[in-house]
Write the C-alpha cells for this entry.
Amino acid sequence: MGKRNVIGLVALVIVLLLIPRLLGNPYYLGVLVWCGIYSLACIGLSLFMGYCGQISLGHAGFCALGAYISGILTTKAGFAPWPAMLVAIIASLIVALAVGLPALRLRGHYLAMATLGFGVIVYVVAEGNPFGLTGGPSGFWGVPKLSVFGLAVNDEVRWYYLVWGIVLVIMVLLLNMVNSRVGRALKSIHGGETAAKAMGVNTARYKIGVFLLSAALASVAGSLYAHYVGFVNPEPFSLVFSIHLVTMVVVGGMTNLWGAIAGTALLTILTRYFRVFKEIGLLLDGFILIVIMLLFPQGLFVGAAKKLAGLFRRAHPSIHSNSGGHPKKHEEVPAA
C-alpha cells in the first residue's frame, strides 16, 4: 500500500473520530454523510477515468439502480435492507456487463456518449413508472433505515460512522489494488492501450473489470442514499448528477483515490452551504471543469501544491540551491 497511504488512512481515521465531538450540530454531520455517500461513487469513477483512462457520463444510472432496486425490494417485496442492497449490487453488475461489453469497445467521446445514453435510459424508465414500481416522477416513500447487529441506524451520528466506515474499508482494498500488478496494468492502459496490449496486458478484461467495480460502488452509494433519505424519485439521478460526479473526480485529481474524496467533500460542502450553487449547478460544473483542465490538469489540490512550491522556489532560490547541502571544496591534487 505504501507508507504515505498508511499515514493518510491513519490521519483520516483520527479526523473522522474527532469530527462528531467537534461538530455538535446534526446538520453538519448530515452534510458529511452526503460527502461519504458521494465519495463511494466517485472513488469507483476515479478508478475508471483516472487509472483506466476511460470516460463515463452515466454513473448516475448505476446509483439510480442501487436506490430503486433496494427501495422496491424493501418496500414492496418484503426484503431486509442488507439483502436488498446485495441484490441491487448483483443486478447493477449484470446491467454493467451488458452495457460495458459493447460500449467499452468505443473510445473517447464515443464511449462518453454511450454511457450518457445508458444514464438517460435509466432516468426515463424510472420516470415512466413501469408496472407501478418506481412511482413515476413523484417517486415513493417508506424505504426503511438500516441496522447493524440489531442497532438501528436512525440518527446522523450513526449514519456518519456507518457510511465513512464503508468508505474506509473500500479505500483500504482499492489502495492495495492500485499499488499491485492490477494497478500497474490499469495505468499502462491509461498511458497507451496499444502499448499495453503489446506488453501482454489483457486490456478488454481490465476495462470491463474496472467498469463493473465502479458500477458496484455507485450501486452501493445509491442504496445508502435510499435508506438514508427514506424516499426515492428520479430527479436526483439525472444527467446533471453524472456530470457532477465527473466534476468531483476531476477537481480532486483523476489519478488519485484520495483526490476523489477531497474533490467530493469540497463540492458537496459548497453546494450544501451556498444555495446559489444549486441554482446554477450545471453551469457551475461546466465552468469548474474548464478551469481545472486548463490550469490544474492533475487536480486542484495537486496542481495548487505544485504552483505554491514553484512560487516558493522562485522567491527563495538560495534555499533551493543549497537544499542538497553545501558544495564540497575541491581537493588539491598533490604534485607528482
